[in-house]
Amino acid sequence: MSVVKVKPRQTGATAVLSRLGQPVVTSVTGGEIGVVTRPSEAGFNPLDLLYASLSACLVLSARIAASNLGVLDRLGEVRAEVKGEKAADKPSRIERFHVAIEVSGDFDEATKAAIIADAERICTVSNTLKGNPILVKTKG
User: Fold this and answer.
1) Which tens digit of pLDDT belongs to each residue from 8-45?
2) Using CA atoms, how far apart are residues 132 and 129, in angstroms rounded to an integer?
3) Distances in whole angstroms, Cα of residue 59 to Cα of each of 35, 72, 126
4) What is the C-alpha separation between 4 and 22, in angstroms, rounded?
5) CA dist 21 to 9, 17, 66, 81, Å?
6) Distance, CA of 24 to CA of 14 (rounded, Å)
7) 100-129 b/e with 16+ CB inside 10 Å = b?
8) Which of 78, 74, 76, 73 is nearest to 122 (CA)?
9) What distances in angstroms separate CA 41 from CA 3, 45, 79, one per listed residue?
């Protein structure tokens, strides 16, 4: 069984918005993404980024799970689709996430189910959303 070693990296992001512009988010590692604000604009809005974070974390975690189970060499593709429902009451938030994970590869349904279950346990983003993280406000 091979073990995937995860190298820690800096995490974090900063969003900047000028008076007339669109938000731009920059990661501490230098990645940058523009954020759209109009419903008809192509691109990521803040909720899309939340869904993207969850879906990306789940597929990466599934790959780690397949490796931990010794079946990475037989993994075809992992797809995670994430959608959400906004709450009808205040405060504004996502009340329910809908997550569909599909795993393809040369293994049986029990192995697919094990990969999905392990991915859900490994995924930092889903674990964070299931918890009650503390938001600490600091002066900038």
Assistant:
1) 888 899 999 999 889 999 999 999 999 998 888 899 99
2) 7
3) 23, 13, 12
4) 38
5) 30, 6, 43, 30
6) 8
7) ebebebebeeebbebbbebbbebbebbeeb
8) 78
9) 42, 9, 25
